[in-house]
Amino acid sequence: MQKHSINKYVPYPLIDLPDRQWPSRRIDKAPIWCSVDLRDGNQALPIPMTVEEKTELFLHLVKIGFKEIEVGFPSASETEFRFLRNLIEQNLIPDDVTVQCLVQCREHLIRRTFEAIDGAPNAIVHFYNSTNPLQRRVTFNMDKDQIKAIAIKGAELCRDLKTETTCRNVRFEYSPESFSDTELEFSLKVCEEVKAILQPTPENPLILNLPATVELFTPNVHADQIEWFCRNISGRDSVLISMHTHNDRGTGVAATELSLMAGADRVEGTLFGNGERTGNLDIVTVALNMYTQGIDPGLDFSDLPQTREIYERTTRMDVHERHPYGGDLVFTAFSGSHQDAIKKGMDASRKAGSNRWQVPYLPIDCEDIGRTYQAIIRINSQSGKGGVAYVLERSFGIEMPKRMHPEFGNVVTAIADDQSAELNSLQIWEAFEKEYLQRKSPLELVNYAIDHKPDDVHKVHMDASVILNGEAMTLCGSGNGPIAAFVNALEEADLKNFNLQNYSQHAISRGSAADAVSFVEIQRTDNQASFWGANIDSNVENGGLLALVSAYNRSR
Q1: What are the tens digits of pLDDT across the range 329-355?
Q2: How far is it, in rounded angstroms, from Cα 302 to Cα 392?
Q3: Cys staple from 117: which of 43, 123, 253, 442, with CB 3.0 to 4.6 Å?
Q4: What CATH architecture does domain 443-555 belong to?
């Protein structure tokens, strides 16, 4: 790489548009969507999809709600041609869905494309030629007039062949390829020539696709290009301005969103951004971004895991773990502060009973796109008390008292740190069970009997058989309840060096409806250290006593 004075690359010029309007606009409706998964996405695969795989993906795109689907380049190969013919001949194209075919502005390829769409209910013939200076000079060795003539000839042939096809409804789309790197005035001039030949109307508009074939500059510049074009094209109500962004700079989504603010009507892209080089626009991300702003995107991603499964299987591509909305880890929080905030947000939403989504760190309700909350909190050595408590509550119905969160959080963090690994919910449960529920040493409560005092119904007497440090003994005590009586029995035997701080219990919302979990907190009198104990039992009285034993044993 060059250092300091870099002269190998030249920054692209800005657009002279001082009164630009797009920065103060917002997206308030969904665009027309066109999936190019079966063409742009397919040609970028190391192993192209088979006809069967393309058919499965086509049917899923229809199910999601795409009304325009670019099915391929039927003039390029027999496989592409047969795929489209199979869709038509097997009546797999719904009447409200339009198939789109890409074709270069070359006569024999355009004629073959019209053969391919015969009998289709609706079709878009998408013809194009390269217009940018680099291609004109390096690839074609042509001047502007020669490049313009290619577009004109292609438009004239498409117009003439439309009268001969048996396709019930043929529409046209023209792309000045590499629009992003073409002089705006020249792009406009070529598109005006094409429009003059095809004579679009508001009822039958021409699609003018303005592709960022290679992403070359920041998204605001692309938005300026689109706004400039929308202002200057004649008969604006007779054309649909279409976006086709790539992701070479990693800002394809932003460029598309700003271009919609700049006046674009239509968006071409792929599921999860599949495509050449760094990929095409990711339609899933743009659509769900709209959804999080209260806009119906017109596409159904309520079962995004199924969409991802079909996409990965048919394309043999993987969705990255951090991919927006669809990645394995996007609804996961490892940070303790994030985990705590998520738990508090979930609790607040549940208590408020509002359908307004307001949870920290989660811009979308996972359930809206077929994801679940089970994987939101994942625990490792960097996790905090809130995340651990969340997992116990969501997975096992155990609602630990808030004062207990730091203690068990430290227990789990120590285990994760020792193993240098993430802990799943079952491992967290096992840690809770070992730390609290299985504490039977040095004190074990073998059995007990409780009698109410005849002269005071609010006072009970307990005789308890215990094993302490392997030695059997009987303890006796009285109090205003079983736990108080047991505490006094320990004190009578000179075994009490603590004060009872907290006792609580609740029914468990997972598993047996008859079970309840009890929690007891004690504080040692010698060093003021607090210790929690817990137990699960169908008998609340027994559970409370065993929770006290658990805390006692943990304090030793």
Answers
A1: 898 887 778 888 888 898 898 888 878
A2: 27
A3: 123
A4: 2-Layer Sandwich (3.30)
